[in-house]
Amino acid sequence: MVFASVLLCTFLSLNPTLHQVAQFPVLQESSQSALPQLTGILSSLIVTEEVKAAETDAIMAANTGKSEIVQVTYKLFGLIPFKSSAIQVMPQLKLLPGGQSIGVSLQAKGVMVVGQAAVQNQEGKLVYPAKEAGIEVGDIILKIDGREMNSDQDVANAIHRAGEKQGFSEILLNHNGQTMQKRVSTVYCPETNRHRVGLYVRNEAAGVGTLTFYDPTNHKYGALGHVINDVDTNQKIEILNGNVVASTIYAIEKGKRGHPGEKIGSFVNQSKFSGNIEKNTVSGIFGSLEGEIKNPYFQEPITVGWESEIKEGPAKIYTVLEGERIEEYDVQIERIMHNRTDSKNMVIKVTDPELVEKTGGIIQGMSGSPIVQDGKIIGAVTHVFVNDASRGYGVFIQNMLKDADIIDKKEVA
C-alpha cells in the first residue's frame, strides 16, 4: 500500500497535464470555441472536469451578447476534487472591420474655457475679470444669468447684456466635475464697444480619424480607439451632439522622431454613410451609423477576438492613405498589457515597408484603424510613440465593445 501511494504521488507530480491544470487561474476568460479545447486538455485518465453551470446554457447566454460564468471542478480519476476555477465564456460576436477615413465634428455640452486674456478698461488699464473671479482654463460654462450656453457667441452676447444691465455676470460652470457659480464683473472695452470678462471659449471640435468596426445587426459603430480631448486644454469633451461622415485623404505628413505625422483630409460632401456620436470614452467614440459601409478585404463580418485570444506576433491593420481607398498593412504585436485600464493595451510595430515609406509608421488620423489577427478583429490603433513613429499602442476590441454597450461592462478578470 505504501509503495502504491508513493508510486501514485510520483506519477502525479511528473504528469504534465496535472501541472497544466494546476496553473489555471481561479478566474479565467475563454471564448466559446475554447471550451472544447479545454476539455481536450483534460481528456486523460488522470484529470476530468465537472461543469456545474450547464455549458450549453452558458453558450446560449453568450450568443445574446452577454458573458456567462461557468464553474469548473477538476477531479482526479473523476472522484477526488483537485482544483476549482471559473471560466468566463465570452459572447460569439461578429463585426465588420472598418478602416474608412471619417470626418468627426461635435458640439460640447456647455462652452469650454480654453484661454484667458486681458481686457483694457476705459482708463487704459489691463484687467482679468474672469481670472480674478476664479474661472480657470478647462472649466465648462453651463449658464450665464440662468440662460444655457451652447456656443461662443451665446457667451459673448450674454456677458455683453449683463454688462449693460448690471455690470456683472452670474456664471454657472463645471469645475473639475463640480458645479459652482461665480460672479464676474464685466468690463467695457472701448476697442470692441462691448462688455467683456477676458475669456477665450469654444464648444466645437472637428478632425479626421478612422472607423474601427460596424455592427450590421444593430447599426452601431466604434471609431478612433481613444477619447477626444480639447486641443488646448487636453480635457475630455462632454458631447452634446456630434456627427461622423466619410472623409477623403489628400496628403500625408510623414512622421519622424519627436514629431508625429498626420493625415490631411477633408469631409466628403456626398458621404455614402453618416452617423451620430452618442459617447466619447477612453476607448473611442460610439454611436449609430447608416448607409453603405464596405471594406474590400471583408465581404462579411468576422469574429471578435477576445483579450485572452490575442498573442504576440504578426497582425494586419486597415487604413486609408489616399482618397477613400482602404489598404491592408502588416504590423507586429510586440507586447500585451492585460492590466491597463486606458486605451494602451498593446504595443504594436509597423513592419510593412510600404507603410513605413509613406508615413514613417503610425500617424495622426490613423487612430481607430482596426487590427486583425488570425482572421479575428482584436482591437484598434490608438497612439504613436513620439520618439519612434514605427511603434504605437492599440486598444482591445472588447474594451471598445463595452463602451459601445454591445457587451456587458463587467470586468474580465
UniProtKB/TrEMBL annotation:
<dbReference type="InterPro" id="IPR009003">
    <property type="entry name" value="Peptidase_S1_PA"/>
</dbReference>
<dbReference type="InterPro" id="IPR008763">
    <property type="entry name" value="Peptidase_S55"/>
</dbReference>
<dbReference type="Pfam" id="PF17820">
    <property type="entry name" value="PDZ_6"/>
</dbReference>
<dbReference type="InterPro" id="IPR041489">
    <property type="entry name" value="PDZ_6"/>
</dbReference>
<protein>
    <submittedName>
        <fullName>SpoIVB peptidase</fullName>
        <ecNumber>3.4.21.116</ecNumber>
    </submittedName>
</protein>
<dbReference type="InterPro" id="IPR014219">
    <property type="entry name" value="SpoIVB"/>
</dbReference>
<dbReference type="Pfam" id="PF05580">
    <property type="entry name" value="Peptidase_S55"/>
</dbReference>
<keyword id="KW-0378">Hydrolase</keyword>
<feature type="domain" description="Peptidase S55">
    <location>
        <begin position="178"/>
        <end position="413"/>
    </location>
</feature>
<dbReference type="InterPro" id="IPR036034">
    <property type="entry name" value="PDZ_sf"/>
</dbReference>
<dbReference type="GO" id="GO:0016787">
    <property type="term" value="F:hydrolase activity"/>
</dbReference>
